[in-house]
Design a protein that fits this description.
The structure is a single chain. By secondary structure, the protein is α+β, with helices and mostly antiparallel strands. The protein is built from 19 helices and eleven strands. The chain has two domains: about 220 residues, Periplasmic binding protein-like II (D-Maltodextrin-Binding Protein, domain 2, 3-Layer(aba) Sandwich); about 190 residues, Periplasmic binding protein-like II (D-Maltodextrin-Binding Protein, domain 2, 3-Layer(aba) Sandwich). Helices cover about 45% and strands about 10% of the residues. Its main location: periplasm.
Length: about 450
C-alpha cells in the first residue's frame, strides 16, 4: 500500500472518566508502579511514532487500542504517523540526521545501524523485557543490538512464505508442492503453460523484493560477504543463483522488475498470477472480501523450497522500535514501549495481526494464533528461523548500507532482464558492496 495516513490517539476522555483529580502525571506514575513498569513518563510528555502502513487491519486496531490504553493510563498523548513501506527508511534517516520529527520509529532490518549515534540507548528497557519474557530470539536481537548495547527494541519478524492457488497447482500436474528448487522451477513452468503463472518482485520492494533476492542467493550457497566481512559475492554459487533466477523469471508475467511490495498482492488477487511469496496479509485480503471467497478458499501456504545448499534459508522481514536522541521525553518513550510489551498487550497485538507479525520474545510463542488456521503454519517459526541479511558477516553499518541500497535486489534484476550479463551484474554488485565494507 502506498497511501499515507496520520492517526492522533489521545486518551483524555478516558482519564476524565476515572474521576481522578491528581493529574495525568500522578496517575501515570501510580499505574506504572502498579503494573510493575520501570519507567515513568516526564511531566507534560507527548510522543510521536513513525510506523509502516499496516497490511492487516486487525494489527493496526490492536496496536492503536494498546496505545489508547497507554494514554488513558499515563496521560501521555501519542501521535502515530504512517508511511508506505518504502518511505519509512528515508524519512527515519532524515529525522535522525536532522534531529527533529518523530520521537520513535518502527524501522526495517538493520536500519538502526545507519545512525546508531542518533538513537537512545535502550539496553535497560530491552534487557528487562527479555528477562521477563523468556528471552529474545537471537536473529531478531541481532537487528537491535550493537556490541553489548541495544540501540533498538526488537518488534517482530513478518514471515515470508509461498502463497499459491491449490487448484491451479494441481491443474498443472502437481499433487503436492515441490520441496526443492528444481521441482519448484518445473511447477512454475507448468503453471505458466496453463496460463496461471507465478510472479516475484525484482523491483525495490523493501520486504518481498529483498526476501526473494536473499533466498535466491542463499539457497544456492552464495553470500554477499564472508565471516570476516570480505566481499564474497563473486562466486560460482552466485552465478548458479542468477542462472536459476533467469529461468524462474522466464515463467513470470511481464513487469515484475518494477514491482514494489504491493504489486504482487494486487496481481495475485486480480488473478494475474497464482503463485508468489508474501506475508499472511495476502490471504486475509482475500478472506475478508466476500467477492474473493473462491480465491481465499483456494490459497495454501508453504515455506520456500530448499536449494542446493540443503537447508531452509530465508530472510523474513524484521522490524524494530527505536527512540531518536532528539526525543524530549525519552522516559515516556521507554514507558510506552514497555507498556506495549506487557503480556496482555503483546499477545493481543500478535493475535490481532493474525499471524502477520511473529513474536520477538520466546514467551509469546504459544499464542493461539499460530494454530488457529492451517494457513498460519508456514509463518509460525519466522522469528526462530530467519537468517540476518548481513550473512555471513556481522550486522552493522555496512550491512545496513548494502540493504538500504538494494544491492542484491539490483544484481538479480539487472541479470534477469538482460540489462547486464551475469558477470557484469556480479561485478557491479561486488563494487557496490565494497563501498560499504571498507
Amino acid at each position: 500500500m502506498t497511501m499515507k495516513r496520520r492517526k492522533f490517539l489521545a486518551g483524555t476522555a478516558g482519564l476524565a472518566a476515572t474521576g481522578l483529580a491528581a493529574g495525568p502525571f500522578a496517575v501515570g506514575r501510580a499505574i506504572a508502579q502498579g503494573a510493575g513498569m520501570s519507567f515513568t513518563p516526564e511531566e507534560g510528555a507527548s510522543l510521536r511514532l513513525l510506523r509502516w502502513v499496516p497490511f492487516v487491519p486487525g494489527e493496526e486496531e490492536a496496536w492503536n487500542a494498546n496505545t489508547q490504553a497507554f494514554t488513558e493510563a499515563t496521560g501521555v498523548q501519542v501521535q502515530i504517523d504512517q508511511e508506505s513501506w518504502e518511505d519509512v527508511r528515508p524519512k527515519a534517516a532524515v529525522a535522525a540526521n536532522v534531529g527533529s520529527g518523530p520521537d520513535m520509529v518502527m524501522s526495517w532490518f538493520d536500519d538502526p545501524f545507519q545512525y546508531p549515534d542518533k538513537l537512545v540507548d535502550v539496553t535497560d528497557l530491552a534487557t528487562g523485557l527479555g528477562e521477563a519474557n523468556g528471552g529474545w530470539y537471537e536473529g531478531l536481537e541481532g537487528y537491535a543490538k550493537q556490541d553489548d548495547t541495544f540501540i533498538a527494541v526488537p518488534l517482530c519478524a513478518i514471515g515470508n512464505a509461498i502463497c499459491y492457488r491449490d487448484s491451479h497447482m494441481k491443474a498443472a500436474g502437481f499433487d503436492t508442492f515441490p520441496e526443492d528448487t528444481d521441482g519448484f522451477l518445473e511447477l512454475c513452468k507448468a503453471m505458466q503453460s496453463n496460463g496461471t503463472p507465478a510472479g516475484f518482485p525484482h523491483g525495490k520492494a523493501v520486504g518481498d523484493g529483498n526476501n526473494y533476492a536473499h533466498w535466491l542467493l542463499w539457497s544456492h550457497g552464495g553470500m554477499t560477504v564472508d565471516e570476516n566481512g570480505e566481499v564474497a559475492i563473486d562466486s560460482p554459487e552466485t552465478r548458479a543463483a542468477i542462472e536459476y533466477a533467469k529461468a524462474l523469471y522466464a515463467t513470470f508475467i511481464p513487469g515484475t522488475e518494477s514491482w514494489l511490495d504491493i504489486n504482487n498482492n494486487r496481481a495475485f488477487l486480480a488473478g494475474q498470477i497464482s503463485l508468489t511469496a508474501n506475508g499472511v496479509s495476502l490471504y486475509y485480503a482475500a478472506a475478508n472480501d466476500p467477492a474473493m471467497s473462491e480465491i481465499a478458499e483456494d490459497i495454501r501456504t508453504v515455506n520456500l523450497p530448499i536449494g542446493p545448499v540443503g537447508e531452509s534459508v530465508e530472510l523474513h522481514q524484521t522490524s524494530t522500535l527505536s527512540i531518536f536522541d532528539h526525543c524530549q521525553y525519552p522516559e515516556a518513550a521507554k514507558a510506552y514501549i514497555e507498556f506495549m510489551y506487557q503480556p496482555d498487550r503483546m499477545n493481543a497485538w500478535i493475535e490481532g495481526a493474525s499471524a502477520y507479525c511473529c513474536q520477538p520474545l520466546k514467551a509469546f510463542a504459544d499464542n493461539p494464533v499460530w494454530t488457529s488456521n492451517p494457513v498460519h503454519e508456514a509463518y509460525a517459526n519466522a522469528s526462530a528461523s530467519l537468517r540476518p541479511n548481513g550473512y555471513a558477516g556481522p550486522l552493522g553499518p555496512a550491512s545496513a548500507g548494502v540493504m538500504a541500497d538494494y544491492v542484491l535486489v539490483d544484481m538479480f534484476a539487472e541479470a534477469v532482464t538482460g540489462q547486464r550479463s551475469t558477470d557484469d551484474a556480479i561485478a557491479n554488485a561486488a563494487r557496490r558492496i565494497g563501498r560499504y565494507y571498507r
